[in-house]
Amino acid sequence: MIFDAIEHSSARIIELFTNSYAPPVSYNQSAAVLADIMPILQGVQFPLQMRFKVLTLAPTVRIIDVTGRVILVVRQKLFKFKEHVEIFSDEARQQKVAEIRADQIIDWSAQYHFTEPNGKAIGSTKRKGMKSLWRASYDVFNPRDTVPNFEIRETNPWAKFVDGVVGSLPLIGLLSLYFFHPSYGATRLTGGQVTMKMTKQPAFLEGRFLVEKLATATDRETFNLILSFFMLCLLERRRG
Questions:
Q1: CATH number, position 198
Q2: Are 25 and 99 within one domain?
Q3: pTM over 0.85
Q4: Same domain, 60 and 137
Q5: What residues in the chain have per-residue pLDDT under 50?
Q6: pLDDT (tens digit, 9 = 90+) per residue, 201-227?
Q7: Who has the most CB within 10 Å: 18, 129, 199, 239?
C-alpha cells in the first residue's frame, strides 16, 4: 500500500511538470509547482491602471503599475479582417512581448489567442456571444485547454447600460466618465474564487481602468487575464 501511494504521488508530480496547465488537485498546493516566470511581470506591483484615449480610431493602451512604471503598450492594427493586436514593453514599441489574433473574422463569438513573439501560447479569451448582450461575459483559457479556466463577468450590467446611454449624449455624456463605473470580475472556475477585478475609473477624455489582483495566480495566468481584460475593454468599447 505504501509503495503504491509513493508511486501514485511520483506519477502526479511528473504529470504536473509535463503539462503546466494540467487541472490541479488543489490550486494552493500546486501554485508553486506551476509557477511560470515571465520577464515582463518581474517586479510588477498591483494594482495596475489601463489607460487609452477615448477619441481615437486605433487606440494605444498603456498599462501602468502602482509605481508609475509603464509595463505594457498595446497597439491595435487598423483595417484587419481578423483582429490583430501587438503588445510592447516600451513606449517606442521596439520590444514586442506578445500578440493577439482572432481565430475568425470579427464576430461576437470569436476567440482571441495570446502568444509570445516566438509563438509560445499565453492563453486565450472568448466572448460568450448572445449571453454578452446584456451582461458582458468572457471565458478565459490556459494554453491547450478546451474547457475555460476562468470566467470574466460584468458585476452590474445596469452600470454599463447607463454608462453607454448617458455617454452617447453630447456634453451630458461627459458625466458618465465620472459617475458610472462598470466593473468586471475574473473567477477561477475551479473553486469559484475571484482572482482579478477590473473597474472603470473617473477620467476626462480618457478610458481608465483599475486592475486588481485578489488571489494567487501563476505569472502566465496573470498575463493571460491582463490581456483578456484588455480585449474586454476593446470589444465593450465598440459595443457602447
A1: 3.20.90
A2: no
A3: no
A4: yes
A5: 1-35, 239-240
A6: 877 777 889 999 999 999 999 999 999
A7: 199
Location of C-alpha cell 480585449? 231
Contact 197, 183 (CB under 8 A): yes
Same domain, yes or no: 44 and 19: no
Which three cell numbers, joined as nine digits, stand for 64?
Answer: 501602468
147: its cell numbers: 474547457
What are residue 83's phi and psi, to 5 degrees? -55, 135
